[in-house]
Amino acid sequence: MSRPTPAFTPSLEVSGLAYAYPDGHQALFGVDLTVERGERVALLGPNGAGKTTLVLHLNGILDAGAGTVRVAGLPVAKRNLAEIRRRVGIVFQDPDDQLFMPTVREDVAFGPAASGLRGPDLEERVREALERVGMEEYANRPPHHLSFGQRRRVAVATVLAMEPEILVLDEPSSNLDPASRRELADILRSLDVTVLMVTHDLPYALELCPRAVILSEGVIAADDRTQDLLGDEELMRAHRLELPFGFDPRSVTMGA
């Protein structure tokens, strides 16, 4: 497939990444993946494929057993971890794993404040992050008073406040009602950051990500236009991926 013409250093470069857990289980067998700046890419695959293991290498939670990972040209290594963790923002599947302060504003301010931002600059950073997810009017509300969909949007804001290079989303559509699902999709389409979306929700991947990668048994099994991958019935079957009954990916008009 054609790729965007690189105008900058790619947001993400993974080369020959292999990893075995201490118990000997080999989770990754040499993953190669490049994501250009501004791309939205869906990371698909069955349970146990290695998706979580790959994501945990992106901000240095796991150290590569072999191979390299670079974020905006910066190697993911101990000497760079503070900067890497600012550049790679992970939004967890459960927003309650991410929100722990008394108010929405304090949750969004926590990361930038910990990085040394203070005063009017901090307030402006928080305001902008909440505005981008449509939650500015809830700044003084306790997160536990919000709906699940609103808490997920606040979780996205906590990451955006760090001005990341890459936004990694773990099952972003899970447990959302249809309206919240649409609202989050609109927000994600409007963001000017690179997005890597880990999901089993294949229609959502098709709606939001022009490109998809299938990770299966620790290797990249396919990398192409999302519409083409989801329309390949043999490929889908081989990697235990299933579309909802009656859903035809060819009938969906792809957005940018």
Features:
256 residues; alpha/beta; Rossmann fold; six-stranded mixed β-sheet; four-stranded antiparallel β-sheet; 9 helices; 33% helix; disordered N terminus
Distance N to C terminus: 15 Å
Lateral arrangement of strands in the main beta sheet:
6-7-8-3-9-10
Estimate what percentage of residues fall within beta strands: 15-25%
Number of self-contained structural domains: 1
Number of strands: 10
CATH homologous superfamily, by name?
P-loop containing nucleotide triphosphate hydrolases
Topology:
Elements: E1 12-20, E2 26-35, E3 40-44, H1 51-58, E4 66-71, E5 74-75, H2 81-87, E6 88-91, H3 104-114, H4 119-132, H5 148-160, E7 166-170, H6 178-190, E8 194-198, H7 202-208, E9 211-216, E10 219-225, H8 226-230, H9 233-238
Parallel strand pairs: 3-8, 3-9, 6-7, 7-8
Antiparallel strand pairs: 1-2, 1-4, 4-5, 9-10
Describe what this molecule looks like in 3D:
Belongs to the ABC transporter superfamily. With 256 residues, the protein is an alpha/beta fold. It is built from 9 helices and 10 strands. A 6-stranded mixed beta sheet has the order 6-7-8-3-9-10, with helices on both faces. It has a 4-stranded antiparallel beta sheet with strand order 2-1-4-5, with helices on one face. Helix 3 (104-114) crosses helix 4, helix 3 packs parallel to helix 5 (148-160) and helix 4 packs across helix 5.
